[in-house]
């Protein structure tokens, strides 16, 4: 049986990847390694937690002896690495946590793989990264795999650094790796510090929707399950040592996206058209706010036959429906209610 270690599997994207791997590949034993920070939530995986090919392990990738012990205890064949500090605003407020988890944590994992895989065949380290490593675009152009790196926030600098280290371990030590760089994800289970779930929560409770600057910044949005499908394809069929860009060809100015979301929410909540839009509030801009991200995903489309399945309207409507049906999830995660329970249940290593 192949043992696949997925890090960060209790987070937003990780939970969709874990579910896909557990359900679509019953011959894999899936280990979900997650420290359960504020962003990790095992409720995201309630539906699959009793599957015989799934196991949760609480642990910190910054803790080197713990990783050594983990790799000693399990014959790990491959890794899909998602664990990270992921929110740009938090990286501006506290860069150190991003350096520790995103850079040191990644190196610790690379070292553990290198030691345990030395000379063995059939291994793979799939590093999950972001389009933010390429910097910021003007009104024209797209990020390609060859676009030079130009990270501009502590978050993107930490992710760029981890990408370079993953590539360096491939070139220097021959570690079998693949990297994917994806655009903005949205969908069920996203922590409501990110734009879309934060806006849904505020609209629901008739609270102001904060829009940074003038709302002119552009992001390329992808439904999270389309990202999980792309990861599955790259993991199984991607070429070792290669990078794949993943994106939705779905660019939206923040203000236009929020206006669309307000229209959907007015309908769902039986509000008079325009009520939710009245909550839009322009606030101080994010420091160093990147203007525009947009991905050219030709490589994964041509080489691996991937394309996003949902239109933005479909994905956004599904997302709104999910949040409206899961108000308890939102209430519990925003109140930090899980943390003491997890500490009691799993210890805090
Ligand atoms: P998230 O913040 O929702 O989840 C991160 C998970 O990592 C959480 O479960 C957290 O508990 C865990 N974690 C954090 N520090 C840890 C540590 N030291 N040890 C073990 N586990 C730890 O993040 P997300 O949005 O799901 O992003 C997942 C990955 O995808 C990240 O690497 C991120 O850079 C990348 N990414 C995200 C997006 C996006 O739009 N969200 C887009 C492209 C790439
Ligand atoms: O591009 C991929 C990246 O997308 C991922 O690597 C990151 O992990 C993920 O957090 C995301 O980063 P962004 O900074 O683009 O996402 P966020 O949801 O924080 O913000 C989206 C846009 O909305 C951005 O231009 C900032 C703006 N914004 C955000 C918040 C939270 C607002 O205008 N108001 C807000 O309250």
Helix-strand blueprint:
Layout (H helix, E strand, L loop, with lengths): L1 E6 L4 H13 L3 E7 L19 E5 L5 H10 L4 E4 L6 H6 L1 H23 L6 E7 L23 H20 L3 E6 L1 E3 L8 H10 L4 E4 L5 E6 H14 L5 E4 L4 E3 H15 L11 E4 L14 H7 L7 H14 L1 H8 L2 H10 L3
Parallel strand pairs: 1-2, 1-4, 2-3, 4-5, 5-6, 6-10, 7-9, 8-12
Antiparallel strand pairs: 9-11
Helix pairs in contact: 1-7, 2-4, 4-5, 6-8, 8-10
The structure holds nicotinamide-adenine-dinucleotide and 2'deoxy-thymidine-5'-diphospho-alpha-D-glucose.
The site of nicotinamide-adenine-dinucleotide has 30 residues, from helix 1, helix 4, strand 5 and strand 7.
Can you put this structure into words, describing what you see?
- The protein is of the alpha/beta class.
- It has a domain at 2-186 and 222-250 and 289-309: Rossmann fold (3-Layer(aba) Sandwich), CATH 3.40.50.
- It contains twelve helices and twelve strands.
- It has helices spanning 12-24, 64-73, 88-93, 95-117, 154-173, 195-204, 224-237, 254-268, 298-304, 312-325, 327-334, 337-346; strands at 2-7, 28-34, 54-58, 78-81, 124-130, 177-182, 184-186, 209-212, 218-223, 243-246, 251-253, 280-283.
- It has a seven-stranded parallel β-sheet with strand order 3-2-1-4-5-6-10, with helices on both faces. It has a three-stranded mixed β-sheet with strand order 7-9-11. It has a two-stranded parallel sheet with strand order 8-12.
- Helix 1 links the parallel strand 1 and strand 2.
- Helix 1 crosses helix 7 (224-237) and helix 6 (195-204) packs parallel to helix 8 (254-268).
- The radius of gyration is 20 Å and the shape is globular.
- The model has no long low-confidence stretch (mean pLDDT 96).
- 2'deoxy-thymidine-5'-diphospho-alpha-D-glucose binds at residues 86-88, 130-132, 183-184, 194-195, 198, 210-212, 217, 219, 254, 286, 293.
